[in-house]
Amino acid sequence: MGAELEFLAAVAADRAEGVLRGLPRSAGHGDSLTRAIRVTAEQLKSRASTIVTGGPYLPALERVHARDLQRLASEANVLHQLLSAYAGDVGRTDVPVGLLYLIDELIRDLLPSGADPILHLDSSNMYSTFPVFERAPHILNPAAHPEPHPVVFNVPGLEPANALLSPILAHEVGHTCWRRTVGRDLRARLDLVAIQAALQIGVSAGANPKELGTLFDSWLVELMCDGLAATLTGPAFLFASTVFLPAAGEAGIGSHPYPLDRLAFTLQILDRYGWTSVLGGLVPTTFDWCVQSAANPHLAGDPRETALRAAMAIAQPAMIELAEEIAVNRLRAEDFERHKNDLFSYLDLGIPPSAPSGDDFTAWLLVASSWLHEIRIRGDGGPANLPAIASDPTLNRFLLKSVELSGIARLWRTHGTSAP
Ligand SMILES: [Zn+2]
Fold first, then answer.
1. For the segment 280-296, what is each residue's pLDDT rounded down to a tens digit?
2. In the 8-state DSSP scheme, what is residue 73?
3. How far is the CA of 228 from the centre of ligand 1 (A)?
4. Are residues 197 and 337 in the same domain?
5. 124: CA distance to ligand 1 center in Å?
6. Most buried one in 60, 71, 152, 304, CB count within 10 A?
7. Count of other CB atoms within 10 angstroms of residue 255
């Protein structure tokens, strides 16, 4: 055996060993990542050892073996990178339990095959999700590891536990839904002939067909994710997205549809589930501003804009239908109306709402109720009040405590009723 191969094998094994030493000791959310990295690093070590000891030394294969060993070392580096990014997030206990309940509920609702959430505080003021194995599928092959698979939830680092903006997470989980099944299912339902015709009008007016196709693909995903979030979380998504997008100001053509068109789509979905009259009655100033703004988007007259908006209008009915099939535990106005008096009485008293009757107060019912209650007690002064409500630390802490207590009550009812 050549000394060079032995040396390269030692380097690869040492890097894999370094990864194993760095595995987190804490358990909880994110365990699936720890297990997958442990198994992969162990395999990597044994592959390095097999290359140098597994057969007779053949000088002709020396270069092939050297390349294999170098590849193993770089695979260990990828594991190192993933581990150093997320090891601190495994089993984390420094965020409110209510936030973890909320994310668990989101996964139950939108990802029926499950996910192991890793809550990561991101440096950007953004929400996003990504399935970790997809970052390096050639090393962490999803098919080789048992489900549920880890999904990273990136939340704004300075404000990780913002429950009032958490409906944005529903949109982000929508992206994972899209990669799993929704993208394929939606495309199968689209009237592609009509959509192509709409896009062709843009091309005839001078739009670049390749760019237009890319923008269409991107807008389709984003609007579908809005559809899932609005269907599932009701007016909580309306208010959260109004603040987070934000739904005002100038918009340029980019990867996302115009904020005001997104707002209009959300309003269309809310109307389908009975919210228009409820919101118009409870928070008329804020709601009317949303309706009026959505009806008057600032348009530039760009041929891409005209074509993409027409194509989205054709795609919307299929999106609404598909979102309805997926988000079966959606928040409807009648669910809110049934509990409104109880919920608002608790909130007036500053007591986390609970449902003694055995009905469930889901996280989204609590989030939507908090938004509506707070807008009302601040006098329904229009959109300028919404950002301060969204970032109110006391309100967010209270809301997450409510989600936690409601989750505990649900667990108690489901599992804790058999007396010894
Ligand atoms: Zn998105």
1. 999 999 999 999 999 99
2. H
3. 11
4. no
5. 15
6. 152
7. 11
* DSSP letter, residue 233: H
Total domains in the chain come to 4
**DSSP 3-state of 119:** strand
User: How far, in Å, is the centroid of ligand 1 from the Cα of 93?
Assistant: 28
CA distance 72 to 16: 9
CA distance 166 to 159: 11
- On whether the pTM is more than 0.85, the answer is yes
d(CA 111, CA 113): 6
Name the percent of the chain lying above pLDDT 90: 76
Distance 16 CA to ligand 1 centre (A): 35
Q: How far is the CA of 275 from the centre of ligand 1 (A)?
A: 24
Which range marks the domain in which residue 119 is found? 97-156
Query: Do the domain assignments include residue 162?
Result: no
Do residue 189 and residue 321 come from a single domain? yes
**87-108 pLDDT, tens per residue?**
999 999 898 999 999 999 999 9
Q: Quote the ligand 1 centre to 178 CA distance (angstroms).
A: 10
- Which tokens belong to 241? 């997205």
Compute CA distances 207 → 142, 204, 211, 259, whole Å.
39, 7, 8, 22
d(CA 331, CA 275): 10
Between CA 401 and CA 350, with CA 340 as vertex, the angle to 5 degrees is 35
- CB atoms < 10 A from the CB of 184, how many? 10
For residue 416, what pLDDT is reported? 62
Q: Are strands 128-131 and 150-156 parallel, antiparallel or unpaired?
A: antiparallel
Tens digit of each residue's pLDDT (9 = 90 or more) over 305-339: 999 999 999 999 999 999 999 999 999 999 999 99
Q: Please enumerate, as own/partner, the contacts of 346-350 that have beta carbons within 8 Å and a separation of 24 or more.
A: 347/373, 348/373, 350/398
Report the phi/psi class of residue 245: left, alpha or beta, with left for phi > 0 and alpha for psi in -120 to 50. Answer: alpha
